[in-house]
Each structure stands twice: as C-alpha cells, then as structure tokens.
Write a structure and sequence with these properties.
Blueprint: H1 6-10, H2 22-34, H3 38-51, H4 56-67, H5 85-102, E1 109-111, E2 114-116, E3 123-128, E4 133-140, E5 143-151, E6 154-155, E7 172-180, E8 193-196, H6 201-205, E9 214-216, E10 228-230, E11 234-235, H7 238-245, E12 254-258, E13 263-265, H8 266-288, H9 292-296, E14 299-305, E15 308-309, H10 310-322, E16 327-339, E17 342-356, E18 360-372, E19 375-383
Helix pairs in contact: 2-3, 2-4, 2-5, 3-4
Length: 384
C-alpha cells in the first residue's frame, strides 16, 4: 500500500469520477490506491494516461500499479532505498494535489490581503507557494469570493526573489501586464504567458532585480511540472492556463504571491479594511485643510515619490499650499490590499480628483502605506 499521505487519504471518500479534470482524476486514482481499490485505481490511471500520455506523475502511478501485482508497495515510486531528487519532486506533486482536493477549506475564510477591490477589478489571483496552488477570487461588491483554484509550480529555490537568476518566485503584489501567445514563444512556455509587473516600485526600492516573471504554460512533452521546477515563474498545465485566461484582464488583474497565505474571517477583513480606509480618509481631509504640518504627519520619514525624499516633498507642499485659498480632494476607484508576509504594509490605488483655487487635475496613484508606531503612514507614492 502506498503510504505517502496515508492518514489523510484513508479518512477521505473518493471524488466522483465523471467529467473530472486531470487534477481530480489524478487524486481519485491516488485515493483508490490508498484504500486498496486496485482495479478501480488501474482503470482511473489508465484513462488518465491515455488522455494525457505526457502526465509523468500518472505514468509513475501506473508503473506502481503494475508492480503491485508482484509485490507490496511501500511508497509512491517504489524504488526501495534509492533516493532520486526528481522522484521526490513527483512525490511532492502527489502530496500537494491530494492536499488541495481533500483538506477542509472553510468558505468563511479568505486571504487577508484583499481588503477592498474597486468594481473595475473583476477578479484577483492569489498564489500560495507552500501549497503549490493558485486561487481565483471574484470581486463581488468589493469582497473576494473564491471561484477556482489550480495546481502550480514555482521557482526551484522557492519564494522570495531578490536578484536575477536566483530561481525564486517573488513575493508581493503585481499586475498582469500583457499576454504572449504561443506564436511569440518557444514550446517551453506551452499555451502562452501572462507577464507580471515584477519588479514593482517597492521591489526596485528594496534593490530587488530580475525580469521575465510570468504565469505560463508547460512544454508539450510534460503535462505538468513538479512544485519547484521553474526559474521563478508561476507555471500551470496548459489546460489550466486556458481556463485561467477567462478570469484575467490584462493591464488590470492583481496577482498576490505569498509564501504561505494568511486566511482570515470576513469580519477580520472588515476590521483591517476600515482601519486603513480611515487613515486614508484622514489624509485626504488634512490635505483639504491646507494645514501642511497636519498633512505631512501622514508621511513616513523614509517617504519617497520618484526622486523626492520627505524633505524635498515637504518643501514643495509648503510652497504649493501657501498659494491656495481652498483645496478639495476626491478619491475614487479605490483598492486596498495588504502585502503578503507583512500585515502592517499595504498597497493603495485610487483615482485622485484634485481641485483648488488655481489648479484642477485627475491623477491615478499608487501608494505604499506602512504602520509605524501604531499609525498608518505613506512610505512611497507613484503618480501614474
């Protein structure tokens, strides 16, 4: 009997086999093996390998089932005491697929990061590197609701990219910038690639570099890659990439990549949203007051906006505000997202409608906010 996740498997009923995608067919075959339903497992894996002959994990299980006719199986990929890095990766793929299909996933828990999404964002993607999983959340009146999830592969060295060539997938908040069709790429990228906006402003400020971080497909000779197999990209099976495409708005859809997603209840999300939104609104009101000292109290001492540091930014604000008799600031298309791995760090985006006695304009803005000594402050700002 295969024992690689026996306690979990034995406690879980088999999934229905009709019209399942490859991911679920694979889990069903593993469940059947774990419960000693070998004929059923053989039928399931035969169907899977006929449909996807390049599915390496399915071929491995098929080999195990043939071997089981002659001797008991001790583990997935029954090779005795021989250790093989590639085999270990395939075992990890099996664990991650079974884990995703069998663990209890509470519908009242959501990723801690999606505090508020403007109506123009139809979906957001959340990657959990520790689970080898990409979750799709639909934006319903600003609140995230999970509508799909997919098995993925990340960088060979894990998550937390710092520099070019480190084989790590970045942690942060990015935007899908564009789509590259298979005609533009080699077979290595399979069904195409969605490009990500790595490095973003915060990555650049932190000295992180590198380029070409994409969400892309798999080469034609391999149905899927093992959990840690890319050079830093997020990789899906080509069938899954096609399904994912229906949820993506190029130039718009946010992608949040975390080492391990923090899941919170909706009421916790509400509290965090209200806290950050209140700080943002107070910043807006203090700007309207034309009291420059009050306005500047909302900025971190390490604030930067382009080439401006806090000192030069403050000098500019004192000069500009002194020339105004009134100021009105409106914020629309507001989105609030907490940064993964940093609960006191947030990305805020909005359309700023600025009106004053001698100037009016509308500017899209991105701000990074950091909580310092219990108070939210702006640490970086970009006018788009």
């Amino acid at each position: 009997m295969i024992r690689f996740c026996l306690a979990l498997l034995l406690a879980t009923p088999a999934l229905h086999a009709a019209e399942l995608d490859a991911d679920r067919q694979m889990v069903n075959s593993l469940l059947a093996v774990s419960q000693s339903r070998m004929p059923e497992a053989q039928i399931a894996v035969d169907k899977l390998t006929q449909q996807y002959p390049n599915f390496r994990l399915a071929q491995l299980i098929k080999g195990d089932l043939l071997l089981a006719r002659a001797q008991p199986l001790q583990t997935l990929g029954n090779t005795g005491n021989v250790r093989n890095a590639e085999l270990e990766q395939l075992r990890d793929e099996a664990r991650q697929r079974v884990r995703a299909a069998t663990e209890v996933f509470s519908d009242d828990k959501v990723p801690a990061y999606l505090l508020n999404l403007d109506d123009s964002y139809r979906h957001a993607l959340v990657v959990d590197a520790s689970r080898a999983r990409l979750y799709v959340y639909e934006n319903r009146a600003g609140l995230p609701v999970r509508v799909a999830d997919f098995y993925i592969s990340i960088g060979k060295a894990g998550a937390g990219k710092q520099k070019e060539g480190d084989n790590r997938t970045p942690i942060g908040i990015y935007t899908i910038s564009s789509f590259k069709s298979p005609r533009e790429l080699t077979d290595f990228y399979g069904g195409g690639a969605f490009t990500l906006s790595y490095p973003n402003e915060w990555d650049t400020r932190q000295g992180r570099n590198g380029h070409g971080i994409w969400i892309h497909g798999t080469p034609s000779n391999n149905y899927s890659r093992t959990p840690r197999a890319s050079e830093g990209c997020v990789v899906l099976a080509n069938d899954d990439l096609r399904q994912l495409g229906q949820y993506i708005q190029t130039g718009k859809t946010p992608v949040i990549i975390a080492e391990q997603v923090e899941w919170v209840a909706y009421d916790v999300l509400d509290t965090r949203r209200n806290d950050l939104a209140a700080a943002l609104d107070q910043w807006r009101k203090d700007w309207e007051s034309r009291d420059t000292d009050r306005l500047l109290s909302h900025y971190s001492t390490s604030f930067h906006a382009g080439t401006q540091d806090l000192q030069s930014f403050a000098a500019s604000k004192y000069k500009v505000n002194a020339a105004k008799s009134w100021i009105k600031v409106g914020l629309s298309k507001l989105s609030l997202m907490l940064y993964p791995e940093r609960p006191d760090f947030a990305l805020v985006t909005f359309e700023q409608d600025y009106q004053s006695s001698n100037l009016s304009d509308s500017t899209p803005k991105r701000q990074f906010w950091s909580r310092e000594n219990g108070r939210w402050k702006i640490i970086h700002e970009t006018s788009l």
